[in-house]
Amino acid sequence: MGEYAMTIDGHAVEGAKFFPVINPATGAPFADAPECTPQQLEDAVNAAQRAFVSWRQDEAGRRQALRACGPVIRNHVDLLANTLTREQGKPLQRAVAEVEETASYFEGISARPIPCDILKDDAKERIEVHRKPFGVVAAILPWNFPLSLAAWKIGQALLTGNTIVLKPSPYTPLSTLKMGELLLSVLPHGVLNIISGGNDLGAQMTTNPLVRKISFTGSVATGRKIAQVAAVDLKHVTLELGGNDPAIVLPDVDPARIAEKLFWSAFYNCGQVCIAVKRAYVHEDIYSKMVESLVDVARRTKVGDGFDPTVQIGPLNNRMQFERVIALVDDAKKSGATMATGGDPRPGSGYFFEPTIVKDISDGTRLVDEEQFGPVLPVLSYRDTEDALERANSTHFGLGGSIWTNDIDRGMEIAARLECGTGWVNQHAAVDPSVPFGGAKWSGIGHELGTWGLDAYSQLQVVRAAKG
Q1: 435-459, pLDDT tens digit by residue?
Q2: 79/183 same-domain check
Q3: Contact, 153 vs 164, CB < 8 A?
Q4: Rounded Cα distance, 342 and 340, in Å
Q5: How many distinct structural domains can be found in the chain?
Q6: 360 to each of 146, 293, 326, how far by Cα in Å?
Q7: What is the pLDDT of residues 341-391, one digit of tens each?
Q8: Which of 59, 204, 210, 378 has its CA 20 to 30 A from that of 45?
Q9: Which has the closest alpha carbon to 162: 232, 58, 68?
Q10: Residue 274 is among the residues annotated as catalytic for this protein
């Protein structure tokens, strides 16, 4: 048995073939992941379908099993975090935090109630609305938060009585595979299956007729393909797709006071966060000071290998994303934008890019109009708040957005006018397991988290009884 195995029907299973996993800090392979065969995928889906028969009927058992996942993960924080940093690149302390959040999520969702609505209960009739599971859920993960996003999908699917076949990104399969092996000790056979492979494997998952729900986090392009496939078989979908989140900074704030918070709202995880700030609109009265303050934070931020305890930003995760960021920045330079700081990849091995603040840039530039998903923030000037709102909303994306102001009431009013799934005030990318998370427009369909997330993994059933 290799160091990393798939989880299929309660067993650790090797692949017939393997593919290399790259350490983004070096640009070199450091481990191999199993390549799932079509037959192994069939085995995983069939196992999930068999397990569904009894799993759906035992809510108390589901809660107990999910609660038990937390301590298992906590007992292996170092193993999972070290693996996560090697394959994803994030600083080790951030990886540890993700592992701990994963454990906490399992423990928290185990106690979350599944709603049952009573619409009527009088002398003549009682009407109830129940949430029932779909069956087998196919879940496909991105590479930026492989453990925490796996926990979201696993937790919601399993609590509501579904079973699941989950595929991590081929860029970051190892920590998720290892978590699956660890959870074999607390989950019944077939309830959770974790397989690994490339894009072809994901396509095979979504077309399997036993799969009744698809949960996908990733790009708009792939999300569209999944929606088309799902429509053919009338599968339900949750699609959490890309974002190009705006931050609007009003003239009443002190740039030096908010600079640190705004900077990390854009640069956390090397900017590889779907709900990170991707473009900032700053009032002309404070524009220069805001740029200077952001540049000061950027220049104090240490970039490097995630195993260096002083590092705050690691590498971009993969060469394709690294080259995309380079291309977007080069295009901005050619358009006449100014690199206030940064603007170049670091020489040597690894996918490192300097934290970059871009000024003197306008809408219509690729770096503004497209999702960069990297450590680069374009800062644009505006004169009128209505103009800033119109520019912020003039995009196909609609995941999140934020308003930065000393007037909370005004901030809330403006945030409510952003065309997005979440509008924050004086914060950005804040996520809570009890609060729904999802997007508008091209940024997705459906929601994760909270009661709304459980609804997305359930289908309604009306039960009504006549009395007398």
Answers
A1: 999 999 999 999 999 999 999 999 9
A2: yes
A3: yes
A4: 7
A5: 2
A6: 36, 16, 18
A7: 999 999 989 999 999 999 999 999 999 999 999 999 999 999 999 999 999
A8: 59
A9: 58
A10: yes
Mean pLDDT of 90-116: 97
Q: How far apart are CA 151 and CA 98, in angstroms?
A: 10
Query: Is 446 among the domain residues?
Result: no
- Give pLDDT tens digits for 425-434: 999 999 999 9
Task: Annotate 421-462 with DSSP letters as a single string.
Answer: SEEEES--S---TTS-EE-SGGGEESEESHHHHHHHTEEEEE
Strands 236-240 and 444-445: antiparallel
Catalytic residue, chosen from 274, 354, 371, 448, is 274
Q: Please count the residues of the chain.
A: 468
Catalytic residue (choose from 240, 354, 371, 448): 240
Distances (CA, A) of 222 to 5, 45, 218, 228: 26, 21, 7, 10
What is the biggest distance separating any 2 CA atoms in the chain, rounded to whole angstroms? 81
β 356-359/338-341 pair status? antiparallel
Q: Tell me which residue has tokens 């450091």.
A: 30
Domain residue limits at 382: 245-432
| Token code pair at residue 368 | 């503004």
C-alpha 293 chain-centroid distance: 29
Q: Please say if 354 is a catalytic residue.
A: no
- How large a percentage of the chain has pLDDT more than 70? 100
At residue 413, φ and ψ (nearest 5 deg) are -65, -45
Same domain, 251 and 232: no
pTM above 0.70, yes or no: yes
The answer to whether residue 466 scores a pLDDT higher than 80 is: yes
Helices (H), 362-407: 366-369, 385-393
Considering 240, 267, 290, which residue would you say is the last residue of a domain? 240
CA atoms within 13 A on the CB side of 163: 30
